[in-house]
Amino acid sequence: MPPLGPVLALALVLAAILTLSVTFIVAASSYLHEPSCPPIVSREEWGARLPKKRQDLTTPVPLVIIHHTYSPPACHSLEDCKKALVEIQNFHMNDRGWDDIAYNFLVGDEYLFMGRGWQTVGAHAKGFNNNSIGICFIGDYREEIPSPRMLILGSALIKFGIDNHFISANYKLIGHRQVRNTECPGEAFYNVIKTASSWGPMDNSPPPSNVTGNQGGS
């Protein structure tokens, strides 16, 4: 077979990229319209300690607050993600003195993880815990964004929360930095969050500082 001309070769490459892009968009769209939530790894499965105490969260909440861990870094296997969650919970309970892991849910590269869940007040954003769900993406997203799969999982989780009246239909999506002096959820990720139709500014938002993430805010 004679070699392909440069124009034809480029056309074939572009066609392949377009096919992959369409496939991903269709898969993401169908995933987000599933009637049930994607499977969530339970606290028992990832080895959570019992909380010291808990407080009921009044739902539906008007805010969804997005975080990143900064440290530990992104995890790419179930076992690595379980270890990351244990590390985060130990830090929050032992070093910070909080009642439990701070977040309501966490997102790994392939899995969703139960934190405090839908019906317990978190400790992720001081002053806003009683009217929000805190979702933390495991990894450092100052210079890169979460994987497409992670973004799909996070979106599907929020949709499930809306459909089941844990999150208000007209909720506002914000980054942690909008309510606390922090870089969280990372500059690169925050720029993506701001493109969401549900994103909105917060009154009297604090300026970012050099605090990076995983500090919560009981």
From TrEMBL:
Span of domain Peptidoglycan recognition protein family: 38-180
NADP listed as a keyword: no
N-acetylmuramoyl-L-alanine amidase domain segment(s): 50-186
Key words of the record: Disulfide bond, Immunity, Innate immunity, Signal
InterPro entries named in the record: Amidase/PGRP_sf, Amidase_domain, Peptidoglycan_recognition, PGRP, PGRP_domain_met/bac
GO molecular function terms attached to this record: N-acetylmuramoyl-L-alanine amidase activity; peptidoglycan binding; zinc ion binding
Family: Belongs to the N-acetylmuramoyl-L-alanine amidase 2 family.
Name of the protein described by the UniProt record: Peptidoglycan-recognition protein
